[in-house]
Amino acid sequence: MPRRASIEGASDVSDETGRATIELRLANSDQLFNTLDPFPFREGDIDVDAERYIVEWAQDLPEDSDIAIVIHLQGAADPGKPRPDLAAAITGWFAAKARAESHALRALFRDGRLAFLIGFAGLSFCLFLSFLLTQRSEGPFARVLQESLVIIGWVVIWRPAEMFLYDWLPLLRRKRLYQRLARAAVTVRMEA
Fold first, then answer.
1. Confidence of residue 180 (pLDDT cuts 50, 70, 90)
2. Half-sphere exposure of 163 (CA within 13 A, CB side)
3. What is d(CA 11, CA 92) in angstroms, rounded to the nearest whole number?
4. First-to-last C-alpha distance (Å) of the chain
5. Is 33 exposed, middle or buried (0-12, 13-18, 19+ CB in 10 A)?
6. Helical (H) or strand (E) element with 143
7. Hey, which of 76, 102, 118, 127 has its CA 20 to 30 A from 91?
8. How buried is residue 112: exposed, middle or buried, by Cβ count under 10 Å (0-12/13-18/19+)?
9. Please, are residues 72 and 187 in contact by the beta-carbon 8 Å criterion?
10. Concatenated DSSP letters for 52-108?
11. In Å, how far from its chain's centre is CA 50?
12. Which one-letter DSSP state was computed for residue 33?
């Protein structure tokens, strides 16, 4: 299988319109799309390498600036082959990725609520057993068992707490980045 040409480019802090700019240099528009996807148009899949490249550059840009993506196509287009709408393909792809992150965020909070109910029930049960044990037994073995139940109870509630405290942040960060990329002004420049 022939090796695909790599995607080259650069990023500027801003262009003449004040947008942070990501530039891609492609030998042809096919480099932007997944080669296994038979529909390289608006509904086509963006190539994994192209997506990673755009996302990595976008992560380095200032978060408060709009993004412009400039695609430099090196060769002349094949007259017998329809030209895909690269701007719509890129913005549509990242809009779909932003929606997917929104769904993942909602699913995380839904799962977190269920996990919290289960964890709270587990914590309550362990604390209740620990309380019963202290009321009925004395001695070092009872004390070890009591403390073990308290620790197990807190371990049971740890994952729901982690979901609500930390796990949503990367999802929200990716969603915002994809939304910025979905709003990007995409320009295609043909170069000889």
1. very high
2. 20
3. 21
4. 27
5. buried
6. helix 140-162
7. 76
8. buried
9. no
10. HHHHHHHHHS-TTS-EEEEEEE-SPPPTTSPPP-HHHHHHHHHHHHHHHHHHHHHHH
11. 15
12. B
The pTM score is 0.76
Burial of 16-31, coded b for 16+ CB within 10 Å and e otherwise, reads eeebbbbbbbbeebbb
Backbone angles phi, psi at 189, to 5 degrees: -120, 125
Tell me the CA distances in angstroms from 50 to 6, 117, 123, one per residue in order. 9, 42, 47
SS3 175: helix
Strand partners, 187: 70
| DSSP structural state of residue 192 | -
Using DSSP, state whether 186 is helix, strand or coil: strand
Residues 6 or more apart in contact with residue 116 via CB below 8 angstroms: 157, 160, 163, 164
pLDDT tens digit sequence for 7-20: 555 555 455 566 88
User: Using one digit for the tens of pLDDT, what is the confidence trace for 45-71?
Assistant: 888 888 999 999 999 888 888 899 998
72, 26 contact by CB (below 8 A): yes
- Residue for token pair 């990329």: 181
Task: Tell me the residue type at 20.
Answer: A
Task: At 21, list the tokens.
Answer: 């700019």
